[in-house]
Amino acid sequence: MIVVGLVLVAVGTVLFHLLSPWWWTPIASNWGYIDDTIVLTFWITGTVFIAVILFMAYCALRYKHRAGVRSEYRPENKNLEWWLTIVTTVGVAGMLIPGLFVWNQFVTVPAEATEIEVMAKQWSWSFRKPGKDGKLGTTNVRLVNADNPFGIDPKDPNGQDDVLVDGDNLHLPLNKPIKVLLRSLDVLHDFYVPQFRAKMDMVPGAVTYFWFTPTRTGTFDILCFELCGVGHHAMRSQVVVEAQTAYDNWLNQQMTFKKALAAVEKRAAENKQLASRKAAADIVATIAAD
Amino acid sequence: MNIIEQLRQKPWTAEQVRIDDAHGGRAYVLPTAKLGLRILLTAITVLLSLFVVAYSDRMVVSDWRPLPEPWLLWLNTLVLIGSSVAMQRGLIAVRQGRIERFKASLLVAGGSAVVFLLGQLWVWRQLVELGYFAASNPANAFFYLLTALHGLHLLGGLVAWTRLVARLTHGDTRRLRMGMELCTIYWHFLLVVWLIFFALLLYS
Amino acid sequence: MAEVGAEIERIGPAEVEDVELYHAKSWITKYVFSQDAKVIAIQYSATAIAIGMVALVLSWLMRLQLGFPESFDFIEAQDYYQFITMHGMIMVVYLLTALFLGGFGNYLIPLMVGARDMVFPYVNMLSYWIYLLAVLVLVASFFVPGGPTGAGWTLYPPQAILTGTPGAGAGIVLMLVSLALFIIGFTMGGLNYVTTVLQARTRGMTLMRMPLTVWGIFTATVLALLAFPALFVGAVMMTLDSVLGTSFFMPTIVSQGELLKHDGGSPILFQHLFWFFGHPEVYIVALPAFGIVSDLISVHARRHIFGYRMMVWAIVIIGALSFVVWAHHMYVSGMNPYFGFFFATTTLIIAVPTAIKVYNWTLTLWRANINFTLPMLFALAFIVTFVNGGITGLFLGNVVVDVPLSDTMFVVAHFHMVMGVAPILVIFGAIYHWYPLMTGRMLNEAMGQFHFWVTFLGAYMIFLPIHYLGFLGVPRRYFEMGTTSFIPESAHTLNEFITVVALIVGVAQLVFFYNVVWSMIKGKKAGHNPWKATTLEWQTEEVPPGHGNFGRELPVVYRWAYDYGVPGAEDDFVPQNHPPKRAPARAAE
Amino acid sequence: MTEATKHVEGQQHPIGIYIKIWGWLFVLSACSYMVDYLHVQGYLRWTLILTFMVLKAGLIVAVFMHMLWERLALLYAIILPPVLVLVFVAIMYYESIYTFVTRQLFFSVLTGA
Ligand code: HEA
Ligand code: HEA
Ligand code: CUA
Ligand SMILES: [Cu+2]
Prior knowledge:
heterotetramer, A: Immunoglobulin-like, six-stranded mixed sheet, five-stranded mixed sheet, 5 helices, B: mainly alpha, Four Helix Bundle (Hemerythrin (Met), subunit A), 0% strand, flat, binds heme-A, binds copper (II) ion
């Protein structure tokens, strides 16, 4: 019975793997190496798993209890144990070493990568790109308010031409390496697009990063991958990967920090005129509410 | 015997059986209670050093504004040293069987530990009056945290001390001596902890 | 071995002073405020299983939501997050840790090393009552305004104490207080387990003659004594952040449009502290399982454990290494990315001693004489599920592979297989194995078979497919997937299937509980040593063992714990306390 | 320790073991010099040099200070936890610097805020 059970588990597992329609979504970035490392890991570990179960099944079949039989008395077998240790070590090294090489690529951002910033807050995304100067302005959380949702330092010249994308999807040009700088205003979040394979947590009080190159055009879902409160599962956006010209078109329509500031100032001037009228209206409203 | 060597024994072989059969059952000659205390102190050491790690990690950040050092802290430190010295004298006395002297030292040790705790509370009051609240700066927060932690451990020691005093009335000298040894080790340990904390607070 | 003529004279004098045994004076001190380790063990186990049932019911509610997202009005997003948090925390800390160390540790350590009781019985009793208090505080958090915390069992700040998270007020504070209490209580118990193993063994019981169960529990306790302080530090500092508004872990934050007072803290510091505790913690629940399963396999396969010394070393090495791998939970946390090299290497190195353990379990079966009793079945099922979960750990440990898999359902599948299924199967096996000792009766075999097959195959069917959801990219801790382009409709069908199986497996546990109660009254009488085991707990005068464990005299040990199938011996096993060249072992009645 | 074996075999150490250890110490020292000689730089350099140093120290403690063998078990038990905590300390040290540097790099300082 248990022999059948064990074999069933081994065969069932393999069959499930072969027949399963659930597997990676097709990749859309340069991180094919990650997929390769997974496949390699899969083969090494999968073989060991099946081998261990089948060995157990064999023992269960062959050494079932029989009256009058004694088990072998041989407390250890040094050679066997050494061999098993060495083979396992080789197996582990075979997975680890390629893995570390890929990780080295992962943490080494190419010099030509353009920076973009993704900013998270409960429970929405916004994005910022450097303007013509190619540099993002520095920020401070204390500067964040309705008029300056990114908290950009107005005194930093690098920040003036930054392109702000608030409430729209993120657009990226095809085949250009990108360094994604990640920032959060409140709690931990995590920026992940399954097709890109790369993700990183966003930590308030710090800026984290990862890099990748989009290799396929299309529209992909952005999901938040770190528990961030009741809205965690609903914290979505999309990223559109498109050819350079389409991308440039999109970029030109976006608001820059300078323009945003100007708009704010204009509004402030109008507001001053409105202020007195509004104050009067407020009083009326409060009275009415009572 | 070396632990590595012990772990290399083959308990099923005839030679090893001969050795093992002579084994008396315990790993250390230490009295059990002392070993228990040492294990407890190891755990406490890990606990306190992790606090210190967190402390130094946090100190790097620019918003760290050190506290003033109340002179009272120096006085408290002296009192605590006195407490430890009294403990040690008590231990020597109990070893020599001089009960009266032992009683006196024990009371002095406990009394000065209480004085130390009151002194620490006084320091807290002073700081609060000066407006150094826990929430206003991490340096303050750590100061309150570390002193509280040390104080609580000392309070725990005082519970053991009280039991020792209670035992004094029974006059069970064998157990008195063991209790006194344990208390003394613990007292010295807490003194060292305090000196480290104090140095850390001065350093910042 | 049997032919060695080691005479009785060789046995050294008893160095263990016979402790002043604690004697109960009344019913209350015998059964309630008892200082007898065996009673404390039962108290611990009963409390742990009771609170574990809460966690089990929570897992059904979670599965219902995941399988049928739109159908249950009473499960809102905030409820769901509270469910997973309490489910995870209870299962890991309040059920498994308490049951393995407080339950099995208390029952088995003194009996297996030949001691009359734990060395500090009074502290041992306190340990249980503080644990109970911790559980009550935890339960209380269900009933405070805002409910229990919904921050995930990892309790990461700033989220855990901000308003966007359910239970951010009273819930999280009670959780932290309860954890602090648990740690204090555990430290008291742990002090006992370690000191008892070191100082209270009976004559002839060298370290290397101890059964692996004792080794596993002993090492796990040492780990716990060193790891829990890290959680304590994190819990205390977070409590202060939450209650006093300090900034240990809290940076400057704009929460839902409002600038908070905190400034400068580092959330990642908490993660380091948490996982410096958290990773050893997963081995704290794994090592006792390793130890126990070794003994189950050996007894029921009627063969010595293969490579005993390697097994001991592996336990010790895994224990030590488990302190230098913690940041493999933080590969994508935004910590210094260069740490990835170090932690990936240490993490994968741990696989080697673990693999040796797996090999030795299977090699014990080789040329054995296997009885397929219930404990044996559970042990085999443990190996299958543990290896499955262990190798998925290798995926996650290899830092690049973790990047896409982290925080997906793959991680959920990994740790359920390796922690939620494998050690639970060992617990069941252990209960079937030691129930006769604790009650004097056997558990019913037919009910046991049913329970085994449904639990083993069912649990495997629940968690194997979840890996594939993880590959697909389904995130963990999602109240519902909503519409997501890369997730096909078939994945929802799969989720429904998993939910149905989980409910079936859950209901099958009722059979087990029924069996436990029924057999207490109607079960077959077990007699002495029904499994013909060599270890000391089966050699007591009375079954179940009475007060003081071993009649008037402590047993004396003459051999290691694994003398099964000794050539030339009369029986196929020789109990540890049987002197050489004397009457053969007393056979089972 | 009272593992009552002091008078039993296994306590004398054949001279061969000392020679072997000398050999190992020599090899380890050679390794350290090689690190220098080959101009290995950066983190790797210090990692290697420290590793060799620790190995040497371990050997010396384990063998030459055999007077300590009686108490060595105690020593290990006492040393191991602090070593583990030290790993934590080292990692946290680099981590705090990393946090500090990223904050300097990306966040503007508000004077007078
Ligand atoms: C009992 C509990 C337990 C155990 C034993 C393990 C064992 C292991 N775990 Fe697991 N793990 C958890 C419980 C456990 N884990 C939990 C609870 C989490 C999630 C916490 C959370 O985020 O909520 C987690 C998460 C987790 C992560 C983080 C994932 C993420 O969040 O992104 C990682 C990453 O490295 C990891 C790795 C490993 C490894 C390498 C092992 C190894 O020790 C496994 C070793 C075993 C084997 C390898 C099998 C036997 C070997 C063989 C038969 C031979 C194999 C052959 C070759 C290697 C050639 N685990
Ligand atoms: C030991 C630990 C343990 C155990 C046993 C379980 C058991 C189960 N768990 Fe759990 N789970 C966790 C630990 C565990 N879990 C943790 C740590 C998390 C992470 C929380 C977080 O993200 O913060 C989690 C999260 C988690 C999720 C992910 C939620 C999400 O991320 O969105 C899901 C979803 O399906 C799930 C399901 C289940 C199910 C169906 C069962 C079971 O119903 C499966 C079947 C198993 C049994 C039937 C065994 C039952 C027996 C007992 C419970 C013990 C009783 C003991 C005795 C009688 C001796 N669990
Ligand atoms: Cu944002 Cu989860
Ligand atoms: Cu881990």
